[in-house]
TrEMBL record:
Pfam name, any one: HTH_DeoR
Listed name of the protein: HTH deoR-type domain-containing protein
Top-level taxonomic group: Bacteria
Lineage: Bacteria, Bacillati, Bacillota, Bacilli, Lactobacillales
Source organism per UniProt: Enterococcus malodoratus ATCC 43197
GO-annotated molecular function: DNA binding; DNA-binding transcription factor activity
UniProt KW keywords: DNA-binding, Transcription, Transcription regulation
UniProt-listed SUPFAM superfamilies: NagB/RpiA/CoA transferase-like, Winged helix' DNA-binding domain
Amino acid sequence: MDDQLYAEERKQSIVNLVNEKNRMQVAELADIFNVTGSTIRNDLRELENEGLVTRTHGGVIKRDFQRSVEIIPKSREFTDEKYRIAERAVKLIEENDILAIDTGTSCRAFAEKLINSQLQRLTILTYDLEIALLLSEKTNYQVQVIGGAIRNGYPYVSGSSVALGLAGFSVDKVILGTTSFDKNYGHSTPNYETAEMKKSLINIGRIKIVLCESSKINQRSFKQFAKPDECDYLITDLQITREQQTDIEALKINLLMV
């Protein structure tokens, strides 16, 4: 009961602080209340659901305080399948790994699970600004953003500068999203530039891990970015069919279903 009372008092204090200062960072609030960043993020999620605050990347703003730039497109969806897939992917990560993380909702879900994991020391490369800001909340994570021009309406850097920025790096594991996967065509995406960026990630990774909901299997998009057997792990949900499972396993890919 005391813990519950303290939590309610803390949340009310958070609302008061945000209303006074217009915006606060997760790290600031964690220091003020002497709790973890994960606890603060849970508080902010509950407060947002109650309509009392608006969460931002790495922090929170007053409900009626309008941001000049809206970073997250409203159409981005996070399903239960994405979070289960993301959680399984985190189990493949080891302390002191060097990671390269793609853009997209599946990779954002992975970043959310990663920051709430027990892993303390990681080095991370990404061209997704939203993911970079989220992971930078964990002070022991070294986060490197690949520079270049931001794609209009999306929270990531795109274009030829990404390939140049990634060249010369070598990472332990690459985390990739995909729009479509076909056993003959491989992984593909509708955008040419995005496909080239994903190829650049694959080129620098020792182990390639693809996050792929089963609804994307047996589908093709405009531009291929990886051959069918080019990635080491494909993590999907339990809605995958037996036939699809057999086809993927025949490619000698590590298929993980959650």
